[in-house]
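Worked example 2:
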Amino acid sequence: MTENKINTAILGYGFSGSVFFAPFLAIHPGFNLVAALERNKKRIQADYPDVTSYEKLDELLHDERIELEVVNTPIDTHYELAKAALEAGKHVIVEKTFTTSADQALALQQLALDRSLQLFVYQNRRFDSDFLTVEKVLRSAKLGEVVEASLSYDLYLPQVRGDVHTEQPWSGGEFNNRGSHVVDQAVKLFGLPNAVMADFAAFRPHSPVEDYFELTLTYVDKRVKVRGTDIACGQQPAFVLHGLKGSFIKSRSDRQEELLLQGQKPSALEWWSEEPTDFGHLRYELEGQIMTEPVESEAGNYYHYFEGVYQSLRHGAAVQVSGIDGYKTMLVMDAARRSAREGRWIKIEAATDLL
């Protein structure tokens, strides 16, 4: 693996670059972090002295060493930057939210196909312990047919902070920030819905963007709610699933982001674990009796996302979170925004035969 490393560049070394990308690229033996785009503050070389810091995008795009680029800039720049990277012959990882529209997402996927390049979407919450545990419970079939589910992502941020990624119109908003995670998780678990109804609100004083969102996704055989708020001093369970034979309730208890922010170094091996008090609770019917049991949490590790990228680029493995996955998420997000504006149900209509 070490003889065939993927030379990689990141297009920013702020929060996501320093927390979610560089630490994992640095420890994975299949990657070599060689460059970063830093137009203003020069930070990356303090942590990674061998990385080239570019001030101009054209210079980075013309660096022939680079095989893979990470687009981790404000959301409204994702499309143009990813397009430029693909046109320069680079494979691309695009941070969530993938793009600002489904049309942009589909155009990037088609461009990658036309250039025989790989396009990845960064959805790290698929590798959270809580989400992996939900998938395990669904595979167990103890719930029977799931007919109702709720996915929540709550925080307590009662004051507007002015962050460029989360609290600026168009590129920000909690629907872009955390809604993109829970929509992706819902589509991963249950597929594309038939229609969406959404409600957005801004409850914090002087908030320029929504800080509350709630979606109802309709399927032929189930209903799924996707929601989040910035004013949850007491938070709802992250996952509530009701099937015809049982129910499962799980908190959002993955600690990877918290530990990374504290400066802890990640690992390819299990580098943290949930406490038993955070385990999910499963109740189901078995031979006429109601059974209750805790479900030990799966081990979450964002390293596995990067391992998947490596396996795709070097060994042709299926892409774990593809441009088409990003397109599906954007279809739901586009429909949700339209529903919130117009106050009605919006049907999901895919404009491609790539699904």
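The two ends are 32 Å apart (CA to CA). The CA atoms of residues 231 and 304 lie 32 Å apart.
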